[in-house]
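Changelog-adjacent note: as of this version, every example in the card shows the full chain rather than a window. The one below runs 890 residues end to end.
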Amino acid sequence: MTENNHSRVERRKKIQEEQRSSKNQKPKKRFWKKFLYFSLIVGIMLFLVGVGAIILIIKDAPKFDETLLKDPLSSSLLASDGKTVIAEVGAEKRDDIGMEQIPEVLKDAVLATEDSRFYKHHGIDVKRTLVAIFKVITTGSLESGGGSTITQQLVKNSFLSIEQTPTRKIQEWYLAIQLERRFTKEEILEMYFNKNLYGGDVYGVAKAAERFFGLNVDELDQLTLEQAALLAGIPQSPNRYMPTVEDNLERAETRRNMVLNYMNRHGYISKSEMTDAQSTPIEETINIQKPKANKYEAFVNSVLKEVQEKTNANIFEDGLEIYTTIDPDIQQLTEDVLSTNEYVSFPDNEKLQTAVVITDTQTGEIKAIGGGRNFQTNSYNYATMMKRQPGSTIKPILDYGPAIEKFKWSTGHMIKDEEYHYSDGTPIRNASRTYAGSKTIRDHLVWSRNIPALKTFQEVGADAATEFARSLGFPISDEQKGNEANSIGGIDAASPLVMAGAYSAFGNGGYYMEPHTVTKIVYSDGRVEKLAPTEKKVMADYTAFLVTDMLRSVVHSGTGAKANISSIDLAGKTGTTNFDEQTMTKYSLPKNAVRDAWFVGYTPQYTGAVWTGFDKTTSSSDYLNSTTDDLSLLVFKAIMSKAATSQDRFKQPESVGKLGMEYYVKGGEKPHPPKPAKPTDFGAIYDEEANQIQLSWNHSTISGFETSFEVSYTVDGKTINLTSTKDKRIVLPNPEKGKEYAFTVVAIAEGVKSEIASTSITVEELAKAPNSPRNLQATYDQASNSILIHWQPSNEGENIQYIVSFTVNGIPQTLAPTSELQATLMGPQPGQTYIITVTATNEVGSSEAVSTSVTVNPTPEPGGWNGSGEDNGLGDIIHPDSNAVNDTTP
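Full-length structure tokens:
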């Protein structure tokens, strides 16, 4: 009984638990039912929305125009005037062939690489498409998709742009299905082979075989496995794999080997065939042919490349109007300068190359490209493609420009040029192997000294200097930027295109405009796509102007003087590079051999970059010497003297001040005035008439600095400041006679004094004419029968002589001059009166005469007068100095 009760209790509990469980499960079932119902409705709505969106996308798809599949439209390239056609490119670049002309090995290579299930799908490979969608979802990038069939690729190249968007992809699928409905697989494959781009201006497999291998249309059956694999791999990225470009060869060979791997994977070739083909160097399989050149081939090639890189346009088939930046006159002038000796005398060495890029300084528009001397189609374009060391042309870009931008240095900032070394201890030298001492950065840049440039780079820091250079379009990788030799141009990264772009920013007030050849494209449907880049502010206006003014000095009086054109405002910089020791030893090159020679210059109108050098050094004559390293300057001058017509000048911005000839940033460092030159030709002359000492000197005044002169003199041991004047001539009035005056003059500019110039003069006592003698007396001496004459001297005068004269009976007579103070007249005649006159005289002049008179009284002797003959009364003349007696007769 008890057991039954227990059983009933347990059953009751079990029933109750089941009921409770049932009550809990009922709400859950209802939730899932509602959720599934709601999801179904949402799904249907999303499906309907999706279908509607797809319908709208398909509705907006381009019209299926069969002519676009086969008949391409050529494109016109227009000059900068928007009217002149410089080239027509397009349909003539392609040779159409039939499917029967395409060898099986080429067909197999393409199918294995691009669409192995081509004959099994109807335009869309669902399996590959789902895999592609999964990649897009997992990577978040449309570039990761892929999965396009040959049919889709043909549709994309014929009707659509190559942009990666869901809308374009849906339209591509729709058009691919339409294409498959209208054409057979063989017809689609034939169109694909004829329409593919193989790089540059090469469209269609027939033209590619001719250009890359030298095989005509009827020789396509001679294609080797290696050649077929190369052709199959190129269309994925023509500009990367096109074998006409030497830099592409390694990538092209890698791509070819990948195609061979695909062919083996899909059973078209055996493993041994794959291995043998992969081991064949690509150089052994190509035979590049040069096509007929366009008129301006180097420029046209740059246009094609730019359009292909920047747009989705098919330049050879879309019937475009491409508005370029070329100035045909400047382009033709550039080609004439490079290809003749009419403007510049090139040496007789065909391996010597010169390349040029001319841009508009304000807009970055490329006006001319000189790809090389005697440039031909598909030649290596040295102007745009090379990467060489820039030498000293890097100094404004990587050294002084960044320093002014970061520290606000003035152009008069002083740096000491001295023995120096890199941070790792490696010595650095200037090209001259000398040291200039403390000079301004202007002077260092003018004479292109390396040591101050390195010091500047070190002070700025590699990071800041590199970022400044990168902002100017100069490519420096993170791995390269720590190399201190970059500061003097030891980096393989420069081309005329890069250098022209960088320097134009200095001439454009600190705005960088990427050099470009195309301004816009007009499509056949009238749609316009603008391609001109926008300007970027990369430096302060004061940085641009200070660098520009220093570079003015380079061409006016420094290393760039041979490029100077006096009629325009020109700034520029030279640069040269040397060979490494190994090359110099191998080819026995002289120590002064130059590898690269640069000149980059600019005006407010145009910027030009010129490089000269040898592509490769393979002999002892492949170098530039002291004559040919000037070719870049001469080429620049030959082009710019005719092309640059604007008289505009670089304008000093408000942020810049000037002190002397140096400029500075307002609020930044001011230049220290240089020491004035010592006055020259300092001399003193005494002006007797004006009784003054006249002082004069010459002086080379520093341009822009107000110069004054301090003049002092010392006399009797006492120094006196005479004056401070801006003149170069002064006087000292009324100097003391017989005193020596020592004069000094010093030039002063902005408080800085020159060395002292000195001179001296003694003002001598001047000789005077003597005064008249004093106390003149004359007495008759009866005992000696003579007249004795006496006088006293004057108190002034030296070297005095006296002239004694007498007059008797109206007849004058003169005794001999004497320096004595007396004279004697012998034998005067009795009864006569003698008028005696004495005059003092010297080398200066004579005094006034003084006179006296005396009468000779007769004293008769006994017996009377015994004279005989007639008496004239003169008596005998006594010469005082000799006591000689002269008888004179009238």
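Structural remarks: DSSP finds 22 helices and 35 strands in the chain.
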